[in-house]
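Exercise 7. Given the components listed, write out the predicted structure of the assembled complex. Treat all entries as one system.
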Amino acid sequence: MATQVPLAPAPPVPTSAGRPHRIAAPRRRWGLTAVGAVIAFLFLIPYVVMLLGSFKTKKEILSIEPTYLPTDWQPRNYVTMWDTPETPLPLNLISTIAISAAATVLVLLVAVPAAYYTSRRRFPGRLAFLFLVLITQMLQPTVLAVGLVRQFLAIGIHDTWLAMILVNAAFNLSFAVWILHSFFATIPVELEEAAMLDGLSHLQVLRKITLPLVWPGIVTATIFTVVACWNEFAASLVILTTDANQPLSVALTKFVGQYATSWHYVFGISVVSIVPVAILFALIERRLVGGLTAGSVK
Amino acid sequence: MATAGNGSRLKQTASALPWLSPALALIVAIVLFPAGVMVYTSTRDLSLSGVDRGGVGLDNYRQVFENDGVPRVLLNTAIWVSGVVLVTVLISLALAQFLNKEFPGRRTIRLAILIPWAASVVMTTTVFYYMLEPNVGILNKFLVQIHVLDETFGFTKQPTSALAVAMVVGVFVSVPFTTYTILAGLQTIPTEILEAADVDGVSPWQRYTRIVLPQLRGALAVAVIINIINVFNSLPILRVITGDLPGIEADTTTSLTFKLLTLYREPALAQALSVFNFGLVLVIIVVYMAVTRPLRED
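Answer.
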């Protein structure tokens, strides 16, 4: 091939350092890096504005001569934002954490057995089940919110964490099932059979042998579910009507008024809310390439 | 023999139930049942507090669709979904192609693009709203400074431009997921095929349209359908950007549903419109299933 000619092994020529001469490394493509930096900047603009704005005083951020950088840095915004008349922010943070954590635990408890069994056994109804899971992946709480409100009012759990835990768990179940299903499928059945010959029960095999092997899949499913629950908005908006029950995503909108919006607080809350999930997402970056579509385009 | 076969088949399904029933219970209780409730109550006369005052057939639907503003809302919905998805896919195709090249700092740039995906859409949208605010918005001021505008413009203060801004934000938050899905597709293309094309002296554009694009069909189908559903269901962007405008000129069927529910206090009409939205999503899912046949490997 033409491109390989210059790379044909040249006789090693001792250099001054005494090491064999190497073919020059492929041209470092700094031009592409520059283009990439511009693209990255474009995607970061709103978050940079958010971060800078969170350090401005209310007077400065509402000034009709807007500034790019804060003239009077106010790190105290991050303290004072927790105690405002608009919304009980500490309780909103607790709601967000509690709902996300409980929903994620529920998703794992429900998805692990289902994903394990469907990847291991063929049985009548298996395809119907996977089909049902796929359909819920396509549905979102937004389109069912009105029905959910009716149902929760009828059974008396409207405006409770429990309602939102169930909603978040149900609508994030499908991704967890799919990703775990594809991870379980990579573990050879022989491994489990050998363990069973050694006298372990089915559940013991799952707990001691298989689960540790699919750990990366569980981490991916967990992080993805946490982030999705953390950011949920539409269902929380109509199901959680009491201020104290609402997550940060809904509480934030209380600061945006027709006239004197407390933008500095809006941005401070946003920064506090976005940083943890952005870090979590970065941890599973490699899995996000393909992971999301693992079930659907295999 | 048939009976014995059926018996053992039933047994197989029965032994799968302990593993699947938690997932099934959650899906039935939080997805299927509310969907049923929604369809049923959309034919009832509901009071504000949710008291059922008897059946009204299709009156709720008639009332929704006889509203003079609704044709505009349907048109908005079509423009919103097709515009955002089309532009998102085009930008993501280019971006994925770029990020598939090797250059120093690529991983950092990929991580930067991940942030809009991880961040809450409400929060991202709120920053855009602030940046384009005519009095205090930084982006508005910037556009005046670089002489794109003579004076600041109320982008979010009238329906048409507000909808356009919402669409830009829609593209912004949809590009990361789409780019990652296409990147995953690009990585499945065998390098031998691309090298062979180079040897045959195919131009880069021909190589892209004749070799790369056809190989991306699966990834593109997933990206397009998931985007259509996400964008159709998206509430936060429109709620933040066009939510305070009077009337329904800048609404889609999804944002109108929530306005009927929370602003106009018309739960019965919101139910009817929700069922319409639900039906549309189901049609999209059926098309998706037909195009990608996600379960075909079984």
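Discussion: Residues 6 and 133 of chain B are 67 Å apart (CA to CA). The mean pLDDT of chain B is 88.
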